[in-house]
């Protein structure tokens, strides 16, 4: 995939993930929103050119795969195929190219939708599927705890702390991805004698959370709910190992529903306490 492919790749992915009323919402994205999505593609092309692929038919982009490598951990950021070309092996071939970029890595990770084809594809590629839940709804403000001691606003000076936490939790730091997320997001940090952790918020939503102790993760999640959207709050990828998060989201008034699995193989680390980024894992 080349930089010149980004506009077409974005359009293909955006429409592939949209359906019904969502299609209109995708087409109505502001120029700033579109630029933000495209910036992710450029970031991955620049840092992982060998993990970025497009499929074409008659000169038109019909599929996209974006993957990354960080300290021996391979992650699949995006895999999608235009609706009109599904069922023809396009997604399988794209995934094969992306998986070739994982050669030599000790672990692999991605997150999946609930689409049967997506889950089958990852399972047959040797990934273990870990079911997750999604929490969403309006935050019940009266349930929010008093200001949480130990949680503060972070900045680039906290990237080493975040990298240390990442290596303990997922076996690899996010590296340039976390710095990229902070261009448009907020970093919350909790650094206590009992443990450390951080969370990233983007557009009023939790985008990533990692901590060395469940108590620290709980504080960070409460802080994100307090700082986030009052309506339409969402916390995704709550797996069985994230039981600490369930009482928090329920107390905050959010509703739980089934979501797609986190898919892993190899030596990923405990992946807990951890709520992954859908894009940067």
Task: State the name of the first-level CATH class of the largest domain.
Answer: Alpha Beta
Overall, the morphology is: globular
Major sheet summary line: 7 strands, mixed
Give the strand order, joined by hyphens, for the main sheet.
Answer: 1-2-3-4-11-5-10
Distance between the termini: 21 Å
The helix/strand class is alpha+beta
How many beta-strand segments? 12
Number of helices: 9
CATH topology of the largest domain: Aminopeptidase
Which CATH architecture of the largest domain?
3-Layer(aba) Sandwich
Q: How confident overall, as mean pLDDT?
A: 93
Query: What is the domain total for the residues?
Result: 2
Residues in helix, %: 25-40%
Range of strand content: 25-35%
Low-confidence stretches: 20-24
Q: Please provide the ordered H/E string of secondary-structure elements.
A: HHHEEEHEHEEHHEEEHEHEE
Radius of gyration, Cα only, in angstroms? 18 Å
How is this structure best summarized?
The chain has helices at residues 6-17, 21-27, 31-47, 90-100, 116-124, 159-170, 176-181, 214-227, 245-251; strands at 52-57, 60-70, 73-81, 107-111, 128-137, 151-153, 186-192, 195-202, 205-211, 233-239, 255-266, 274-275. By secondary structure, the chain is an alpha+beta fold. It folds into 2 domains: 3-105, 3-Layer(aba) Sandwich (Aminopeptidase); 135-258 and 268-275, Aminopeptidase.
């Amino acid at each position: 995939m080349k930089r010149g492919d980004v506009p077409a790749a974005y359009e293909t992915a955006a429409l592939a993930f949209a359906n019904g009323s969502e299609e209109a919402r995708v087409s109505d994205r502001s120029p700033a929103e579109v630029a933000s999505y495209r910036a992710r593609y450029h970031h991955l092309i620049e840092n992982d050119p060998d993990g970025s692929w497009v499929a074409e038919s008659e000169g038109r982009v019909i599929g996209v795969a974006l993957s990354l490598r960080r300290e021996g951990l391979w992650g699949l950021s995006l895999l999608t195929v235009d609706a009109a070309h599904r069922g023809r092996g396009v997604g399988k071939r794209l995934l094969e190219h992306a998986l070739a970029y994982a050669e030599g890595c000790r672990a692999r990770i991605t997150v999946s939708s609930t689409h049967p084809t997506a889950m089958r594809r990852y399972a047959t590629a040797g990934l273990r599927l870990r079911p997750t839940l999604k929490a969403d709804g309006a935050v019940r403000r009266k349930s929010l705890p008093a200001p949480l001691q130990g949680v503060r606003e972070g900045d680039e000076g906290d990237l080493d702390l975040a990298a240390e936490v990442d290596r303990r939790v997922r076996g690899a730091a996010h590296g340039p991805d976390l710095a990229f997320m902070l261009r448009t997001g907020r970093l919350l940090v909790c650094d206590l004698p009992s443990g450390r952790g951080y969370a990233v918020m983007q557009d009023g939503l939790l985008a990533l959370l990692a901590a060395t102790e469940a108590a620290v993760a709980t504080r960070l999640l409460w802080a994100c709910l307090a700082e986030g959207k009052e309506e339409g709050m969402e916390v995704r990828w709550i797996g069985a190992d994230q039981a600490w998060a369930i009482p928090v989201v329920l107390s905050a008034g959010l509703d739980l529903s089934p979501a797609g699995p986190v898919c892993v193989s190899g030596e990923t680390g405990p992946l807990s306490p951890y709520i992954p980024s859908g894009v940067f894992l």
